């Protein structure tokens, strides 16, 4: 078996028929000293629904104390039972399957809507000998005949929602009756309706499908005209009729949207035209989308065609029926929603690094149809947009280097509030959650994102406090957990592997259901392949991290860091910050360079604070590192330890980088550390410039810097100055003992906290605002990643950090 050693060097421990990563027993072999001879010498290639809550009080009660307690979550039977770490071939197969899904997304995949299919089947073929006694789309009728559920209903089979089942079933019964076919199926459907109508009285309002109070009565009217034997006067239906009539008899509006506006500009009403009446169809035709549909809805477009015989409507319907083989979805296309949400899910699951090329193609498609005036909708070329798709597009396009303005969000602002769809009665928690996440990627001066951030933060807090996180657009595994994580760990303080570890538990996979006029599934967004790949990849990475943690402990003992007051807990936190930020198996060298650099910095600053407190003593250390002084003539034991540990670290890292990448970094690496020591020599504050040193060490070990000229680039200089300033202020703020709650609620009054927020916005602008600069984007991302770890340790309590360490490094998924 091959594993990646301390700086990415591949070390052969044992051979198995199938290559896997290091097991616990093999790790123990390393731990007990059998690795010393080859640790930095051998060469080779690298190896190819329970909600989670983050209440700090509850976490503190867990009382994670020392390193041994944190590691106790890692099972002794790790190798035999749970993990049997996956082979590279297994992960490769899964990622290839996902790549195929992403590259073949097309118009987006969505499950069939029996309701919409029935409406399309209502259309009569009037072009055959003047007769109208056959459907224009017989494949739709055939789909209905072939897809009745065992209980007589139509609809989502695995999740019973009374609104979905009754609406779908009534529509299909009307279709079969209209064409006088499948009597047995019709009767079975009627029986289901009769037996389940009363359940509307206890149905959860949060799960009511869109426009139910309009579209269901419209179907009842059709059923009554066809003499379908169902009770039309039961109290629950009379209540629905009354609610509809109250909205219909308003002289000014439907659904809080003025009637004149409905015929003038695109609104949500276009999605449910089949449920309305007294419409001016010729005026409405001016609001068609480019593809001939009315807001991507087959049902709405079907009624429009039946009323107008418009050929663009017909063209849309012919296209969707042909592409979907008779069973049409609730909305078509869904190419924007499918692409954006797939990227979002894969990122949060921690496996996006496998799909960089696919993401580029997906976002190129989104960017092609981005409309800076109105935003985007779930399907391309829409003349109507919503805040959910729009804010998701802004965030993902911006973070992947596309130039996109958030000013379009002003379209979704009413006073001091934001909405998803104009005229909505209730706000969607998930839409506000996505807007909150978008608002955190703001550049300096973007007032609209600042306003969105303040509003959505308070809105989501209130949702959780009132236990009102049920959503009207999606039924997902753990929406409250997702919301709570976002509120407690803002983007600046959210480390990638922490988010992935927790989101893997929150993601529902194929069980997630979306809510439109009917329930539907989006396999491009919610599927078990993503989840399986995420779990396998996580455990594979964690196994590598466990191995590296053993190396870190051995290095700690060998270098006697305890002499400098560096605890094993500090060692663990340092490694955790690196592993949670740069987690990929193949980045072992960068990860350990990062973690070890923190320890070496701590050792040197401890020495300077305790012993080398004057300029002369500090300067002598620098001169001896440069080789200008002979260490043996003027040194003590502590200084010898400092110099030996530093030199060994720099030598080993330089050697490993050369052996792995063929890149010589010795000179540049020494210059970076000597420059840092020079700044320490002059400053009483021994935290100066540490962030920049970490960044330089990481990107040198990764082979990102090919020449020194980049150090003199103006943008690079701005990144260095700003990152150093942020991290220095974060250290100072941590000493001020400002709590995370005070920070989030903005009640601290600390000008330093405000300055940090503004500087972080500026850093985000430097990192993500100009992808065509002279500075390599990978280097920019390292600056941001390092700044986030400083923000994280300042923002997050020790108890929560312990909880994260336990989850990320020592608990399998």
UniProtKB/TrEMBL annotation:
A UniProt-annotated Pfam family: Terpene_synth
A single GO cellular-component term on record: chloroplast
SUPFAM superfamilies reported in the protein's UniProt record: Terpenoid cyclases/Protein prenyltransferases (SSF48239), Terpenoid synthases (SSF48576)
Occurrences of domain Terpene synthase N-terminal (ranges): 280-486
One MF annotation (Gene Ontology) recorded for this entry: magnesium ion binding
Single biological process term from Gene Ontology: phospholipid catabolic process
Domain of life, source organism: Eukaryota
Name of the protein this chain belongs to: Copal-8-ol diphosphate hydratase, chloroplastic-like isoform X1
Source organism: Nicotiana sylvestris (Wood tobacco)
């Amino acid at each position: 078996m091959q594993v990646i050693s301390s700086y990415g060097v591949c070390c052969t421990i044992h051979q198995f028929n199938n290559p896997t990563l290091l097991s616990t027993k093999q790790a123990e072999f390393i731990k007990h000293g059998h690795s010393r001879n080859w640790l930095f010498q051998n060469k080779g290639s690298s190896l190819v629904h329970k909600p989670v809550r983050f209440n700090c009080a509850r976490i503190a009660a867990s009382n994670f104390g020392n390193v041994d307690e944190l590691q106790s979550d890692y099972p002794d039977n790790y190798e035999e039972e749970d993990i049997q770490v996956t082979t590279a071939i297994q992960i490769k197969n899964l990622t290839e399957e996902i790549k195929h899904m992403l590259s073949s997304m097309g118009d987006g995949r969505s499950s069939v809507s029996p309701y919409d299919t029935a409406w399309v089947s209502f259309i009569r073929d009037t072009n055959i000998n003047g007769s109208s006694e056959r459907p224009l789309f017989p494949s739709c009728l055939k789909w209905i005949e072939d897809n009745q559920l065992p209980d007589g209903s139509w609809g989502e089979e695995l999740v019973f929602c009374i609104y979905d089942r009754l609406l779908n079933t009534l529509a299909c019964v009307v279709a079969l009756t209209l064409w006088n076919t499948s009597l047995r199926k019709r009767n079975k459907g009627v029986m289901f309706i009769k037996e389940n109508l009363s359940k509307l009285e206890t149905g959860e309002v949060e799960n009511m499908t869109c426009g139910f109070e309009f579209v269901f009565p419209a179907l009842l009217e059709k059923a009554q005209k066809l003499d379908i034997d169902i009770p039309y006067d039961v109290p629950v239906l009379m209540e629905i009729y009354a609610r509809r009539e109250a909205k219909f008899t308003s002289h000014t509006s439907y659904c809080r949207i003025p009637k004149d506006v409905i015929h003038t500009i695109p609104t949500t009403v276009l999605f449910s035209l089949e449920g309305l009446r007294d419409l001016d169809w010729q005026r409405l035709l001016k609001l068609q989308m480019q593809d001939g549909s009315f807001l991507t809805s087959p049902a709405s477009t079907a009624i429009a065609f039946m009323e107008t015989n418009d050929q663009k409507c017909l063209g849309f319907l012919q296209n969707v029926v042909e592409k979907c083989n008779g069973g049409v979805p609730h909305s078509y296309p869904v190419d924007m929603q499918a692409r954006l949400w797939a990227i979002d899910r894969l990122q949060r699951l921690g496996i996006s690094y496998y799909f960089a090329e696919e993401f580029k193609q997906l976002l190129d498609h989104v960017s092609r149809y981005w409309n800076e005036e109105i935003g985007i909708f779930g399907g391309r070329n829409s003349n109507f947009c919503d805040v959910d798709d729009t804010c998701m597009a802004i965030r993902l396009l911006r973070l992947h280097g596309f130039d996109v303005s958030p000013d379009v969000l002003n379209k979704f602002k009413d006073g001091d509030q934001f909405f998803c769809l104009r005229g909505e009665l209730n706000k969607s928690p998930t839409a506000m959650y996505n807007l909150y996440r978008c608002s955190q990627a703001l550049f300096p001066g973007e007032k609209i994102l600042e306003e969105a951030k303040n509003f959505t933060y308070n809105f989501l807090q209130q949702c959780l406090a009132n236990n009102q996180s049920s959503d009207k657009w999606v039924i997902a595994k753990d929406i409250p957990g997702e919301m709570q994580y976002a509120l407690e760990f803002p983007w600046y303080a959210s480390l990638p592997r922490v988010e992935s570890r927790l989101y893997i538990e929150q993601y529902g996979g194929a069980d997630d259901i979306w809510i439109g006029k009917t329930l539907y599934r989006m396999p491009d967004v919610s599927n078990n392949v993503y989840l399986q790949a995420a779990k396998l990849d996580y455990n594979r990475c964690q196994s590598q991290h466990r191995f590296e943690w053993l190396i870190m402990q051995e290095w700690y003992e060998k270098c006697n860091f305890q002499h400098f007051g560096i605890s094993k807990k500090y060692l663990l936190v340092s490694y955790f910050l690196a592993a949670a930020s740069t987690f990929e198996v193949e980045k072992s060298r960068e990860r350990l360079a990062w973690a070890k650099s923190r320890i070496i910095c701590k050792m040197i600053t401890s020495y300077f604070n305790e012993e080398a407190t004057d300029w002369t003593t500090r300067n002598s250390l620098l001169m001896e590192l440069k080789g200008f002084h002979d260490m043996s003539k003027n040194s003590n034991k502590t200084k010898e330890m400092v110099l030996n540990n530093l030199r060994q670290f720099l030598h080993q890292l330089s050697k490993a980088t050369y052996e792995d990448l063929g890149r010589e970094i010795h000179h540049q690496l020494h210059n970076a550390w000597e420059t840092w020591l020079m700044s320490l020599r002059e400053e009483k504050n021994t935290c100066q410039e540490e962030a920049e040193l970490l960044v330089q060490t990481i990107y040198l070990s990764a082979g990102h810097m090919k020449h020194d000229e980049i150090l003199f680039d103006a943008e690079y200089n701005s990144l260095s100055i700003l990152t150093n300033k942020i991290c220095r202020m974060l250290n100072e703020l941590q000493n001020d003992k400002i709590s995370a709650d005070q920070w989030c609620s903005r009640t601290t009054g600390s000008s330093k906290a405000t300055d940090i927020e503004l500087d972080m916005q500026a850093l985000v602008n430097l990192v993500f605002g100009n992808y065509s600069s002279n500075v390599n984007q990978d280097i920019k991302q390292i600056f941001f990643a390092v700044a986030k770890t400083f923000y994280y340790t300042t923002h997050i309590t020790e108890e929560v950090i312990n909880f994260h360490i336990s989850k990320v490094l020592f608990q399998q998924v």
